[in-house]
């Protein structure tokens, strides 16, 4: 949450000696921000920098310059660069949540909904490469992966996982299998996205169309889920029963 800036209704409260308030700092650079808006501006501009330059070290000096405030202004809203990076990543997750929430609200068949959820993840990664790398990579330190960062990430995953659960349950999968299926689906969508951003797929010389490859991979996984749990043959079932009986007799 943004700290309350040292400005009342048109009357400064008197910042400490040698430290300018966020509003004063902004005016110094020719840009004025109303109380509570500078934090948002820093996050938004920081995100743009990741979008433009990819996964590079964020310069607070350049960020302050681009927003039009003093170099000290960001420290009024964030406890250093690491907290700012977590806020930028959280903003990315909020956007992904919004997209998946919209998909969840559509009246789609379970398979179609799960497909749209997985496609939205890959599409987001393609459209926001630098931001996506920050969201899922190691740049945000473990001690800052909490609060909004965790909440937004969990919400995005929940919309996605629930769509996989709905499809699996409709096809007769046991409840004990649901988490395995959602994690496998997550590995699938993330693996495809990561390989694309790493410029590893399609392989050179394959002449594959990227979008068709994305859809083929996701459809292949969902078709397996839609086929339902694997049915054991009578001999396999008998062997499993004998094995369990033998283990109980030990």
TrEMBL record:
Residues 59-78 bind DNA. Residues 1-21, 227-250 are annotated as: Disordered. Residues 36-96 form the HTH tetR-type domain. It comes from the Bacteria. Keywords: DNA-binding, Transcription, Transcription regulation. InterPro entries: Homeodomain-like_sf (IPR009057), HTH-type_TetR-like_transc_reg (IPR050109), HTH_TetR (IPR001647), MT1864/Rv1816-like_C (IPR025996), Tet_transcr_reg_TetR-rel_C_sf (IPR036271). This is TetR/AcrR family transcriptional regulator. It comes from Variovorax ginsengisoli.
């Amino acid at each position: 949450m943004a700290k309350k800036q040292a400005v009342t209704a048109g009357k400064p409260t008197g910042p400490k000696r040698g430290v300018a308030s966020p509003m004063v700092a902004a005016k110094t650079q020719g840009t004025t921000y109303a109380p509570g808006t500078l934090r948002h501006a820093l996050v938004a501009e920081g995100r743009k920098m990741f979008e433009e330059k990819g996964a590079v070290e964020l310069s607070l000096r350049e960020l302050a310059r681009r927003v039009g405030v003093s170099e000290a202004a960001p420290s009024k809203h964030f406890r250093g660069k690491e907290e700012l990076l977590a806020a930028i990543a959280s903003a990315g997750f909020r956007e992904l949540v919004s997209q998946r929430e919209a998909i969840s609200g559509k009246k789609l068949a379970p398979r179609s909904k799960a497909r749209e959820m997985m496609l939205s993840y890959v599409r987001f990664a393609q459209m926001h490469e630098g931001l996506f790398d920050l969201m899922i990579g190691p740049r945000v330190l473990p001690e800052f992966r909490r609060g909004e960062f965790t909440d937004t990430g969990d919400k995005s995953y929940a919309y996605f996982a629930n769509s996989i659960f709905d499809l699996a349950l409709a096809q007769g999968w046991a409840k004990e299998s649901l988490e395995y299926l959602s994690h496998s689906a997550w590995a699938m969508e993330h693996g495809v996205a990561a390989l694309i951003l790493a410029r590893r797929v399609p392989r050179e010389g394959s002449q594959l169309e990227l979008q068709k490859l994305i859809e083929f991979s996701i459809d292949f996984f969902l078709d397996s889920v839609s086929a339902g749990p694997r049915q054991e043959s009578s001999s396999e079932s008998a062997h499993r029963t004998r094995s369990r009986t033998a283990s109980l007799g030990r």
